[in-house]
Automatic annotation (TrEMBL):
Residues spanning the membrane: 6-32, 44-65, 89-108, 115-135, 155-181, 193-211, 223-245, 257-279
High-level lineage: Bacteria, Pseudomonadati, Pseudomonadota, Gammaproteobacteria, Moraxellales
Superkingdom of origin: Bacteria
Nuclease keyword on record: no
InterPro entries, alphabetized: UppP
Catalytic activity: di-trans,octa-cis-undecaprenyl diphosphate + H2O = di-trans,octa-cis-undecaprenyl phosphate + phosphate + H(+)
Note in the entry: Bacitracin is thought to be involved in the inhibition of peptidoglycan synthesis by sequestering undecaprenyl diphosphate, thereby reducing the pool of lipid carrier available.
Protein name: Undecaprenyl-diphosphatase
Length: 280
């Protein structure tokens, strides 16, 4: 058993748990972390980066089980306690999921082959940071206070924003939260709708990737490394979800914009000035 590899998997799990729900790109930071640590081969890292996100999204399911159950039962039966339109949230999430599912199914392998590298991540981190500053500087008119209030039209627009997150470094949470804010969804509702929207997208992507590429995991140690990373991401994600909701209810995302831009600039400097040869 390679203890160093397990320690690296724990670090990757911590990185995923911290970054999944922040607008800073969990995939981007996982790629950078793996590259800096020399973690695994590229083929295994590419699978690991996608599947480990299951841990963080399972934390969402655990923490929001009551509301998600109401959304599911409301979608099926048309009845849900305390909701005027019990099918609204469930249908909105389905509508918002369709665009990224279609594009992800068609282009996932090409994206992983050509864009899963630190320089692409750095560029998208910078672009995303600038977009956060732009959206946060605009006056906002709130059209949806709770996630259950998001209209089908707004859900489709959020789903189109989510497609940008197929490019590593963009951030799924960042694209959906900032996109929702731009469209007039409240800060709290933007964060929670983004959490819920990640459930079908991340579970679908992880299962599809496992189905297509599980052959790169050649022994029980490989599966253990993947399991450890996923478990750690679940634990860390569970600790951070409520904190983020409280944060966004009171503050803006400009601090994360600065973090994105600074990280992106540092990576580009490392690639250009110091001639650092990134893996993959």
């Amino acid at each position: 058993m390679d203890i160093i590899l397990l320690i690296q998997a724990v670090i990757m799990g911590i990185v995923e748990g911290i970054t999944e729900f922040l607008p800073i790109s969990s995939t981007g930071y996982l790629i950078l972390s793996a590259d800096l640590m020399g973690f695994w081969t590229k083929e295994k890292v590419d699978l690991f980066v996608v599947v480990i996100q299951l841990g963080a999204i399972l934390a969402v399911i655990y923490d929001y089980w009551g509301r998600l159950w109401h959304a599911l039962t409301g979608l099926i039966t048309g009845k849900a306690e305390g909701l005027n339109n019990p099918r609204q949230l469930g249908l909105s999430l389905i509508i918002a999921t369709i665009p990224v599912m279609i594009l992800g199914f068609i282009f996932a392998d090409d994206i992983k082959t050509h864009l899963f590298n630190p320089v692409t991540v750095a560029i998208m981190l910078i672009i995303g940071g600038l977009l956060i500053f732009y959206v946060e500087s605009r006056p906002k008119t709130i059209i949806a206070v709770e996630a259950e209030d998001v209209s089908f039209k707004t859900a489709l627009m959020i789903g189109l924003f989510q497609c940008l997150a197929l490019i590593p470094g963009t951030s799924r949470s960042g694209a959906t939260i900032i996109g929702a804010l731009w469209l007039g969804v409240s800060r709290k509702a933007s964060a929670e709708f983004s959490f819920f929207l990640g459930i079908p997208v991340i579970i679908g992507a992880a299962l599809l990737d496992l189905l297509k590429h599980s052959d790169v995991l050649t022994n029980s140690e490989d599966w253990l490394v993947l399991g450890v990373g996923t478990l750690v991401s679940f634990i860390v994600g569970l600790l951070l979800i409520r904190w983020l909701v409280a944060w966004v209810s009171l503050r803006d995302f400009k601090i994360f914009a600065w973090l994105r831009i600074i990280t992106g600039v540092v990576v580009l400097i490392a690639a250009w000035v110091f001639g650092y040869q990134f893996a993959g």
